[in-house]
Amino acid sequence: MARTSTLTLALVGAVALGGCGVHTTEGMAKALVPDEQENQLGQQVKQELDKQGTKYIQDPEIVNYVQGVAKKIFVSANKDRPGVNWKVYVIDDPKQVNAFATPGGNLFVFSGLLMAADNEAQLAGVWGHESGHVVARHSARQMVDAMGLETVLGMALGQNPNQLAELAGTLAAKGALLSYSRQDETEADEYGARYAAAAGYDPHGIIQFFEKLKSMEGNVPSFAQYLSDHPLTADRITHLQQYIAEKHLTGTVLAADRLQPVKQKLIAQAQNAGLKPAAAR
Ligand SMILES: [Zn+2]
Fold first, then answer.
1. How far apart are CA 267 and CA 86, in angstroms?
2. CA distance linking residue 263 with residue 246, whole number of Å
3. DSSP annotation of 201
């Protein structure tokens, strides 16, 4: 009964907005997947990832550091989309150079990405970009496009366990569900650059990180994954550079940031476990 009324309300919302001629992507997605269902969806995906045995880094020094960088980004993200219950997780997988966001504001980064980043501004750029996807409601809309509204709302209520399991399996293995559109990527880039600069970081960090991955993707295949989930085109980098210049976004790369000791610790842990990190040099 509760489920029926939720579905009906959401559908009415979508039709009403469509009828009023409101076709902004954000407006449509907001009508399609209400915040409460987005949060439930995020929780369901996290529970399913846990159930499937996803390993997380527990080391407080590493987790606190990664969450601390993200928190600085959330200060701005919260102004654009208040009420998101942000959570940050570090997945213990040195071979994956990737990060993703699920509906509801759950952000995940693979330990392989932390080892691949050169400095904190690059990590801040990744968090800015991923939180931009959440602020603009890209992942919820993407899921609705791919699976249909009823399936997605059912997943939020835990009523489509098979599809949820499949989704979480794909996320854990590939670090992404589907590739975002170019428009979504550009939007997330703009949010990301603004958030990183507002937190005091050089907004070019994400560009440097993308370029580093690109230069290494030939000899380290897993480096290509983040780029294929967030397709990188020459005009995307050009656009981002222009956007940063036009908005006069500035920031710094800390001379001695706290990423280095975290990286060294992660690399040592991976080597102790007999794993060869993707970014080991
Ligand atoms: Zn992206």
1. 27
2. 34
3. B
Q: How far is the CA of 180 from the centre of ligand 1 (A)?
A: 6
Q: Assess contact for 123 and 263: CB atoms under 8 A.
A: no
- Say what the pLDDT of residue 103 is: 92
pLDDT at 71: 98
Is the pLDDT reported for residue 9 higher than 60? no
Quick one: pLDDT band at residue 95, thresholds 50, 70, 90?
A: confident
* Ligand 1 centroid – CA 160 distance (Å): 26
The overall average pLDDT reported for the chain is 83
Tokens (6 digits) for 9 = 């309300």
Mean pLDDT of 241-254: 92
Instruction: Grade residue 3 by pLDDT with cuts at 50, 70 and 90.
Output: very low
Q: Which of 38, 48, 120, 130 is catalytic?
A: 130
Return residues with CB closer than 5 A to ligand 1 (ion). 180, 185, 188, 230
- Which residue bears the tokens 């249909």? 148
Tokens, residue 60: 């407080």
Quote the ligand 1 centre to 188 CA distance (angstroms): 6
Q: Tell me the two tokens of residue 154.
A: 């059912």
Domains of the chain: which residue ranges?
35-272
- Establish whether 130 is a catalytic residue: yes
What 8-state DSSP symbol labels residue 108? E
